[in-house]
Specification:
11 helices, six-stranded mixed sheet, four-stranded mixed sheet
Length: about 375
């Protein structure tokens, strides 16, 4: 059964049971996520847990303060929260369990965990708290470039995480360079929203635009990005082939396409979903997980120049990203307007079922041709 054969019955059922005005959301998934999927609650943010015993040294306390400030900035905040645990007293509940999982480690010790997903928080990375490494935890040239492109209106940024096998990596890169311009021509955006539909919240032109980025697994500057990608799914770390991660919205990364699963069909299916009408508006029920990025996402809503967070990476440093030459003409962006109207419970339920179905279909498809 194909991807769309799985989804079509649910789409038809949702259309039949949902009155037009009450379920009218013609905003593409990528644009809905960019304008509305904020990370304002702690459960939507990455969590840095710092384990220590007694008072932190002055320079260590400064690192913790820098991390905490990064998540509390008004402009260009990082999507993280910071928790400190003094082991002079026994930690409580979940944090005590987390500490016991670390084994015999030196203090102060840091653990970075993903936002709360459909299950409990999972660990991205852990290591000794080191002075001077804060910037690489929060920022990197690739992450900054991803945010810049999404805020300028790119629909999806496709990260190619190299395997280290040049022949296979080059083949995957060639496939992306070949297919993305074709997708820009063939994938259709939803029909323009009518007066009863969910409105765009920014003046950013609505367009179809795809770009790609190669990242080496051994790139020291991208170590944290690589960790986030490889641990986004529990079975990715054991995969040895090249991987492609679609990134959209405010840095949300989809399930990876792996090895021979990086092909025209899987790229098309993913692009169609991300560029199609938003069917489930609840962020946590959608596929994927956010990347840890410090970016001024709200600048697009306020129609102003973005604020670039201060870090070790110069503001003008850019990662060269091949962008397809063929572009569709930008559509006219709609100005700010009303919040979305109430949705009927049955329509919401259908959206949730559809999202789960999409996730299962992607997961099966991306493993097609994966090395054993």
């Amino acid at each position: 059964m194909t991807f769309w054969q799985c989804c079509l019955p649910l789409l038809v059922l949702g259309w039949l049971l949902s009155p037009g005005p009450a379920w009218a959301c013609n905003v593409p998934v990528f644009r809905y996520a960019l304008e509305r999927w904020r990370s304002t609650q702690d459960e939507d943010r990455y969590q840095f847990v710092v384990f220590h015993r007694g008072s932190l040294a002055q320079d260590e306390a400064k690192v913790v303060s820098t991390l905490r400030t990064a998540g509390e900035r008004r402009d260009a905040p990082a999507n993280l929260s910071v928790e400190t645990v003094d082991l002079s007293n026994k930690a409580e509940g979940e944090l005590q369990q987390l500490w016991e999982q670390q084994g015999a480690v030196k203090l102060p010790w840091m653990v970075l965990r993903y936002p709360v997903g459909r299950d409990e928080r999972r660990t991205v990375w852990s290591g000794l708290l080191r002075v001077g490494e804060t910037d690489s935890l929060l920022d990197s040239p690739a992450r900054r470039e991803i945010a810049r492109r999404l805020m300028r209106g790119d629909s999806v940024v496709w990260i190619l995480l190299e395997s280290g096998d040049k022949e296979r990596d080059d083949a995957a890169d060639t496939g992306l360079r070949t297919q993305l311009p074709r997708l820009e021509k063939s994938v259709q955006l939803p029909d323009a929203a009518d007066e009863d539909s969910v409105k765009l919240l920014s003046n950013l032109p609505l367009r179809l635009a795809f770009s790609s980025l190669r990242v080496r697994r051994t790139d020291a500057a991208e170590k944290m990005l690589v960790e986030m990608l490889l641990h986004a799914d529990s079975d990715l770390a054991n995969s040895v082939g090249p991987m492609v991660f679609p990134i959209f919205g405010r840095g949300r990364v989809m399930d990876a396409l792996i090895g021979e699963g990086i092909n025209a069909e899987t790229l098309r299916d993913t692009a169609r979903f991300l560029c199609g009408a938003c069917s489930c508006q609840v962020k946590r029920l959608n596929p994927g997980v956010d990347l840890l990025i410090a970016a001024d996402w709200d600048s697009i809503l306020e129609d102003r120049e973005e604020v670039t967070p201060r870090s070790a990476f110069p503001k003008r440093q850019r990662v060269p990203i091949p962008t397809p030459n063929q572009r569709t003409e930008p559509g006219s962006g709609e100005t700010t307007a009303s919040p979305s109207g109430a949705r009927l419970p049955i329509a919401v339920a259908l959206g949730m079922v559809l999202v789960v179905t999409l996730g299962l279909a992607w997961r099966a498809r991306r493993r097609k041709g994966e090395p054993a």
